[in-house]
Amino acid sequence: MTQAVVNIPGRALIWLIASFGVLILPQLARLPIWLIAACIVLAGWRWLAQTGRVRLPGRILRTMVMLAVVAVYVATVKGNFSVDTAASFFVLAVGLKWLETRASRDFYVLFFILIYLAAVNFLFEQGIVWTLLNLLGVVCLLVGLQVLNAPGLSGAIMAGWKRLAVMLLKTLPVVVVLFLFFPRMAPLWSVPLVSDRGVTGISDTMTPGSISNLAQSSKRAFRVTFGGQVPAQRDRYWRGLVLDQFDGETWAQQTVPGYQRPGRIALDGGIGDLAANEYDVLLDASNQRWAFALDNSEAVSNNVFATPENLFVFQRPADTTVRYRLAKVPERRDSVPVPLSAEQRRQYLQLPADGNPRARALAGQLAKNSASAREFLVAVLYRFRKDEYFYTLKPPQMPENGIDSLLFDIKRGFCAHYAGATTFLLRAAGIPARVVVGYQGGENGVGGEYLIVRQYDAHAWVEAWLPELGWVRVDPTAAISPARIESGLREAMADEGSFLENDWISPQRYGDVALVQWASLQMDRINYNWQRWVVGYQGQSQMDLMSRLPGGLGMRELGYLSAGLVGFALLVAGLITVWRQHTGGSGDPRLRLVYRWHRLLEYSGMVVQPGETPDQLAHRAGQQYPEARKPLEAFARAVNNHYYGDTGSARRVPSHDIARMKRLLSLLRKHLRRSGGRQSQKR
Amino acid sequence: MVRAFQNHWRRWVNRRIPQSDSQRLVQRNIFILPTGAGVVFAFLLFIMLLTGINYQNSLIYLLTFLLGALFVAAMHQTHNNLVGLELTLIRAGEGFAGENIPFTVRANSANRDAAAIAFSNGSASLEYRDVSAGESVDVVVHVNSTSRGYLGLERLRIGTRFPFGLLEAWSWMRPAAHGVVYPRPIMPPAIGFPGDQGDESSASLVDEGHDHADVRPWRMGDLTQRVLWKRFARTGEMVIADWQGEQGSTQWIDYAMFPGVDQELRLSYLAALVLERVRLGQVYGLRLPGVVIDPDEGAYHQARCLRALAVFGKDAPDSGKPPQTNDRETA
To answer: Considering the entire predicted model, what is its pTM?
Structure first.
């Protein structure tokens, strides 16, 4: 490393800064604002120093800046360690490095850090746009390196882009082959991605306002592909989790899942074509353990497990996009369900000791008038339908005895209000019941190939235990606002105008503008396929692809195969280089023949002098090998004729004299071999 | 052990790269290895692969493979940057001992650009040049000289790290031609010791010379300074004052002038005297054991004398003749 580039050329530095700007974008959401500002200031400082307007700080000032920034960092992090703080530290290190980027060595240090930052970015964002952005950052770095290494070259940047593009094109086959065949091993050790950044999505508690907050977000929750018929909108109830504890205000889970050993979620989400009853869910990172499933499903892929409540969970929180596969099974209505145990009855009848007296009274009164649990259910739903209850995203606050105010005074609420109130009524009447939280609905993707379920599809409903049927779904929202269930939140909120009213940039908000809708769906399709086939190309999907190839390739064979293919590619590239050199790197076939002629003569022991004309060479060779004089001279004449002769002559057919030159060469070779043999005999 | 290996390596390289004043860089004489940054980069790729495996992240795999393939492509690119470069030593320099002797090498590339080629002689003097296709670039490399005699540019290193600086391809050129190093001029300490008849009369020499000179008509090749312009103005005849022969005895710079002085020092004295004569514009001849250069003047004569002093008693290097290009240059 004795390269004597004392300072970094500005044209190289600008690419480094540009790349930093691009690569930091995916991290923006997890970085504190002060850090972003600090990075901009530090990089700007470096750039101004480059243009000569300010000086780079000396050692003392540099140390002070460093201590100040680190102090702010330590103060904001306050000792909690997560992926976000690690990412900020990473960015902080790059930011500080700007002040001491003086020599090409520092350039390389930043180059390495930024390359790794690109890799780290892929841990968090895997959409196609983010991927392209990351690659753009890496390409900027590589262009910068080229400028750094050839600072004097004019037009270096354009040439750099072009050279890089050609290199990328040439290496593309190898990259594809490696990507397909490189064996996807199991993780060597497991480090979870602990993020303290809140991910939009349903949580494990439900307060009356929680789901209406979600309804303001058009972020995607998951996407589903069905092997057979896509179920109708009103049947798309995606169960997430069950809430069975009520403290008077909040619904929560009684059984909190036990402590999990840190580890990574299993990503193998099943392979092969979907059977008619199967469906494949691609869940965006939720940082939660629960998976979403339709009623009466069973697990197909082995990264999800069924719970006693007939829900599905992962072994670890989904800290990244994860795919899983489930199958619908026919409902069993023939046999009587296993009765609830005493403990379960207690669990599903739990209510706070007091509060909401009017609701309790109502439950008692309705229960008296109903002969069975079923009749009671019908009565409750009838009340919701008949009375002036409203479905709204903007209900007023109901702090005291919320259920009483909802049922008797205000009569306006969102699904969470009605689900909570209904469960309360059922339990007060002695019918075991629970709140189910999840999503309801889903928008068709392009061509109806798959469903997109978004956060605003979040929903809460009720399941009640009927002795003769088991758990049945009861959705009070369907009674109050059938449009929500039949056609989604957009239709249900059409009058109120509150659909995504705070989310100005969401394309879903402008869903009635056909072009926006179309573009948004096309983009989603590209991303979906990208996620399924490229991002999701992991162990099982690789094995599946390989099992379709003849020969049944295992992990070990794949290793050999990829090593072999890479070796082969290297060999081919090497051979091309050698061949290009031997042919003089010339596209002129005659010139190649001239080089071959030279080599032939050199083989037989002659030295081809630089600057010798073909005639001179032929003459000299003719003296050494008199019997080969004729072909030698004829060849020299042919060369001269072509390069210096009358080009206008129409009778000459180019391919003819090439063939003739080749013939002469082979004749010459024969002669030379004969005389060469004689010479060695003499010796 | 290390030294033995180095010697072995050196011999091996020398076998591959014969001594020659012109060299075309091809695959057999180009070497390539990763630089320090390249080694770190390879390590980084390994870390990235581990990250990809551990987080089962396809895109990190993709990025790693992409950069890995680019690394290999860069290997070809760096190598090809040198391939086809033709180097010719066009001038081996001359100078006094202790000076840096310039060697001029012409680099040209027939059909592809060669960017950022570093020319260096050992670890010292680095020159970065871009050679565009079809053009030629002259690079001057300086070699530090210590003592008089023949001086070769032992090894010229031609390296490149283009495009990414992760790999370095290099080759050597071992020119056969030698430069000539004159003795370091040292003024003789005392003026007027036996044998040096020139100095006491030197002040009046010019006038004297004119007075006693034979006058002959101008011939082709005579220096214009020696034309007697006054007479030309008077008579219109171009005549030359020809003092060759008559004044020869006083103008000889002779090896025998400093008896008993060490040979190298003696040559240094003579070199200084040559320079002194040139400074004074005198005509002088040089007499060394076995070498006689008749009195004359002018740059070519000076170079000839100094060269004779430089190589006195030295065997010509293996390659034979000192470069002819010099003569053409100075004549």
So the answer is: 0.72
